[in-house]
Specification:
By secondary structure, the chain is an alpha+beta fold. The protein folds into three domains: 83 residues, no CATH class; 107 residues, Butyryl-CoA Dehydrogenase, subunit A, domain 2 (Beta Barrel); 150 residues, Up-down Bundle (Butyryl-CoA Dehydrogenase, subunit A, domain 3), CATH 1.20.140. The protein contains twelve helices and seven strands. The strands form two sheets. The protein has a four-stranded antiparallel sheet, with no helix packed on it. Strands 1-4-5 form a three-stranded mixed sheet. Helix 1 packs parallel to helix 4 and helix 10 packs antiparallel against helix 12. It starts with 6 loop residues before the first helix and ends with a helix.
Amino acid sequence: MDFTFDSADEAFRSQIRAFLNAHLPADLAHRNRRGYHPLREDTRRWTGILHANGYAGANWPAHWGGTGWSPLHQFIFDEQCLLAGAPAVDTAGFKMIGPVIMNFGSDAMKAEYGPRILRGEVFWGQGFSEPNAGSDLASLTTRADVDGDYYVINGRKIWTSFVESADMIFVLVKTDLQARQRGISMILVPREAPGVTIRPIHDIGESHSLNEVFFDDVRVPLSNLVGEEGKGWTYAKFLLENERATSAEWPRNNANLQRLRGYMNQDRGDGRRLIDRPGYARRLASLDVDLAALKWLTLRALHEKTGGQNHLPMGSLLKVRGSELLQKIGDLQVEALGAHGLYVYPDTLGDDTAEHAWPPAPEYAPGIMADYLYRRATTIYGGANEVQRTIIARSFLEL
């Protein structure tokens, strides 16, 4: 495979940089460079800008209304957006449930949700994990019973990210209690449906993006079923493979490492820089090597996906390598902050006046510890890395 960036790719990179310089609002970039969770209003605003300029749906083919870009151009676009501080688009919509709907949903479902995802008009929560069914999704107990023209859903989900500000939840349920995988279906549930209760979970980084969701006799039309009844396990595997590939997070790893290199090169007030200390320089070089390896693994995965090749469990490989590198970079980021790494600098949720309550610190310090604490879960969410290693081993051993 040839992953070389040719002159056309470099011209595209310049085009994206020019677009970001012209259209990315400074206030969005300021907040998101710090690594805090993007606000929904920021995401909605940015997605609208992308759509108005023909850049919405970077990973969607043109016949879905997306850009139809090549894997390399998708890669370049994501890389440049994160470096510039652009808010992430709704990952659950564009990279998870959107492709599931467009591949397996009814024509009516595609017409309803495809354009709205592209315009940033509908946001999603993922109702998969349960208190006793995390990585073992086949053990889920949330059920959906048919009552006339409706499904009646009962159960609960946990670790449901960003559902507090979502419009819809895609939920895995049991429609056949006697079966395991074959008894699972996927249903779309409005967040505001009667019987849906959301309990917030505040994380160690003093932010709120996680929730527990309760479903008590929630009624949704039968038409909200994605694809066929009993095929939810198939759709979930398709979705999770996309999520794990996203979990490689090469653009975020790249941006975090560049940020780290920037303040390791700064004079610390005594005429010395961290980069001049051999131990720090060696560790930074090691992270550079790991990042380069992740970059090429990500590009290989994109090419194999486009070519319909599935020789390796690329989603699992990317998930393991990318998530662990994100944590390694975070370790050195916090260490390099010195005493400033002892304070979380909690998320102000877009309220710039709250920043005045923070203790004095270099401009680059806020956001690092909060993101570091949140990313301790990166080796768990999307499927624990221990499970991913089992998938990888089974693939290589052809079990």
